[in-house]
Amino acid sequence: MFDVSASGSVVKADERARLWMAILGSVLIASMRDFESTLAAFLVTLIVACTAIFAPKMSLPPLRVGRVGRRLLQINLLSIFIWLTLPWGWTVSQGWSWQPEMATQAAVVTLRLNAIVLWCLVWLSQMEPQVLASSFRALGAPARLALLLYLTLRLLETLTSSRKRLQRAMRARGSAYSLLRRLQGIAQLLVLLIAEGVRRADIFVAALRARGLDLQSTHFYLPSSVSRPLPWRQRWTFTAAIVLLLVAGWGL
Amino acid sequence: MGVQAREVIPEHGPLLQIKGLSVRRQNHDVLHAISLEIHSGERVSIEGAIGSGKSTLLWAAMGLIERQAGEIQIFSKPCVTEPDFARVRGQIALMFQDPDDQLIGPTVLEDLEFGPLNLGVDRRQSRDRARQVLSQLGIESLAERAVGTLSGGQKRLVALAGVMALEPRLLLLDEPTASLDRAAAEGMVEVLASLPCALVLASHDPLCIEALSTRRLTLREGVLGSRSLTG
Amino acid sequence: MHLSEGVLEWPVLASAAALSTFGVGLGMRTLSQDRLPTAAVLTAVFFVGGTVHIPIGIGSVHLVLTGLLGVLLGWAIFPVLLIGLFLQVLLLSFGGFAVLGANLLVLALPAALVGALLRPVLRSMMTVNRTSVSLRTAMGLGGVSAALSIGGSILLVALLLWWSGGEQWLSLMYVLSVAHLPALLIDAAVTALTIGTLFRAAPDLCQRLLETPEHV
Predict the structure, then answer these.
(1) Any alpha helices (H) in chain B, and if so which ranges?
(2) CATH assignment of B16-91+200-231, given 2.40.30.10, 3.40.50.300, 1.10.357.10, 1.10.10.60?
């Protein structure tokens, strides 16, 4: 789960700034309500995403086309539902009828949906889980909550690999074809994961305590890589992106 | 806060004193009426098969697990509650059996700073201590590496560096040479022999025990005995 | 089960986030440091569960597991799902940040209520001798808690959509509710079987998960 460069050292990215960008932009776009501003916001996010894909020299986090395509496809299944249901009105005299103002509403929702997904894809691509906990703390989360996130992240590495191992072992004992047998298998898997997880979590917590972390204190320290200031070029790109979004959405 | 909490250690008396310690888990005695004293300058080995309760004894001495009976005094201070233990941790330190459990990362240097920072040492001093320990162990070149990219032997050295950065007076080591090849194990033993603090070694590696211990104990089915009685 | 970004209007998002924050505060009070390890494990299990796909007919459903988490965590499900959803946004791009509060409310509130109701019952069943009758009852309770939690979540989604857009969302609400029924049934079955396995095969673990949190 490490983001590791060729030399084997951790890439000291700007996780905190990127997290802020994603959250700020999401909230901004979510608050837009008319067709013109959502369209403008969508175009801005499209430009930003294309820049991230095709011009990585602009200091945006690099983004892969395949990932964007898959995600947009996924998210627009919901848009299909929306377009199939929202613009159609039913009255006894006329039956089903097309309602233009509702169609605009559907368009606003679809644009907002796509704009936010694109925006978050740009800023959150290749986030490094190891430093999330401290970024989370920097966002103002209480210490115990940040510790919960930290422990969860450590457990995820263990549990995803145990999950693969256990599933392979279960498949080796013969695959269950009936749905009930399959669900039984999943239940067993969950219990094994919980048991293994609790064993590991107890060790992790003991290790933290053994190295001086006092759970009762609220001032404990979690490791971070985010203390570095942003390089100037990245700072400009980040500022430009958010200003563009502000002007597009709320300036119109 | 942590700085004030570090108390002056009396120069006399045992570093660690355990009396009548019993630990039960799932209706089964893991440790039974263990008594043990460790004095400064000693390197005491505790031998025993896998599952004999070595790790449990070390964890209990650090106050990391519940005990059913027994008194523990660390640096002549009775330790009963979690805050009692929290106050002395750092001066008594434990290196875990699996370095992966102990390494926090993301980089080696940041990992080493974790302990001192949580004990209330300021940032600059923590960094100095981390650098100093790295050079003491001869692994300065690893400073900026991500802990996930280290080899097994490197991980164990970094885990040792992590507890050394706490500047302990008593260091407990759980199988310090397990899963190391011969050369790496010899290197580890050499490093341990050079440490100024008292050591407790839970191990079943003859190389490690022979080379280091000034006193040998064995643990069998939760009962502690001296070497001569069981040997 | 996740509400997507962009669908709800901002007054709804803000109110839901405020209610969720209150829930997280409440949950944090019951989440003592002794419960941190198990809470972290259940957070990870929630995240992993979201990646387990079970093929049904032409589509597939993924596990939600809020019913299971509700009975094992009680109100502490709020902070646990906050972390779980936060990680889903970051690592899987499920849902989103602006809608995080709404999603948290939708998933955690029914499960927390169900958990507050059924958790003490399950706990008392752990202490009496575990006969096959009590095992079946426990499994039944597990299934019921999952069904009620997810049913409650579907209702809450409908409520938020209604609040956000009124009657125009009516047909979408129907479609989404029906689309989530298979997930509800699968989750109820998995939760019942999981509670059954925990009772039968891992009683100590079960006891630890269900034990009353000491208030800090």
Answers:
(1) 2-5, 54-61, 82-88, 99-102, 108-118, 123-136, 152-164, 182-193, 206-212, 227-230
(2) 3.40.50.300
C178 close contact with A: CB closer than 8 A: no
Q: Number of C-alpha atoms within 13 angstroms, CB side, residue C25?
A: 6
Average pLDDT over residues A27-51: 88
Using a CB–CB cutoff of 8 Å, tell me whether A204 touches chain B: yes
Interface predicted TM-score (ipTM) of this complex, two decimals: 0.91
| Residue C215 pLDDT | 40
A152 vs C44, C56, C175: nearest CB: C44
Contact A214/B at CB under 8 A: yes
Q: Please give the tally of structural domains in chain A.
A: 2
In angstroms, what CA-CA distances link B203 with B44, B53, B180, B192, B209? 11, 11, 13, 13, 7
pLDDT digit string, tens, across residues A151-210: 898 898 888 888 888 777 777 766 556 778 888 888 988 999 999 999 999 999 999 889
How far is the C-alpha of B141 from the C-alpha of B127, rounded, in Å? 15
pLDDT in tens, B92-148: 999 999 998 888 877 888 889 989 988 888 889 999 999 999 998 889 999 888 787
**Of the listed ranges A39-53, B58-72, B129-143, C169-183, the one predicted with least confidence:** C169-183
Q: Which CATH class is domain C10-210?
A: mainly alpha
In a domain, A8, yes or no: no
Report the residue from B64, B148, B166 with minimal CB separation from A212: B166
Average pLDDT, chain B: 87
Q: Which of A26, A110, A149 sits opposite C98 (nearest CB)?
A: A26
Residue A189: inside a domain: yes
- Cβ within 8 Å of A, B 134-163: 144-146, 148-149, 162-163
User: What are the chain C neighbours of A145 within 8 Å (beta carbons)?
Assistant: 24, 28, 79, 82-83
Give the pLDDT confidence of C90-136 residue by residue, as tens digits: 877 777 888 999 999 999 999 999 999 999 888 888 776 656 668 88
Q: Do B146 and A131 touch (CB under 8 A)?
A: no
What confidence tier does A146 reach under pLDDT thresholds 50, 70, 90? confident
Nearest CA in chain A to C31: A144
State the pLDDT at residue B161.
Answer: 94
* Angle between helix C203-210 and helix C66-73 axes, rounded to 10 deg: 70
Q: How far is CA C47 from CA C88, C92, C101, C121, C142, in A?
A: 7, 9, 17, 27, 20
Closest CA to A144 of B85, B166, C25, B4: C25
Q: Distance (Å) from the C-alpha of residue A102 to the closest C-alpha of chain C?
A: 8
- One domain for residues A95 and A136: no
Expressed as residue numbers, the domain containing A234 is 15-128+229-250
Cα→Cα distances B23→A196, A214, B1, Å: 22, 23, 32
Q: Are residues A117 and A147 in the same domain?
A: no
Q: Is A10 within the bounds of a domain?
A: no
Claim to verify: residue A20 and residue A123 sit in the same structural domain: yes
**Nearest CA distance, A216 vs chain C (angstrom):** 8
Q: Are residues A123 and A156 in the same domain?
A: no
Q: A137 and A120: one domain?
A: no
Task: Please tell me whether residue B223 adopts helix, strand or coil conformation.
Answer: strand
Q: Which residue of C has its CA nearest to A82?
A: C172
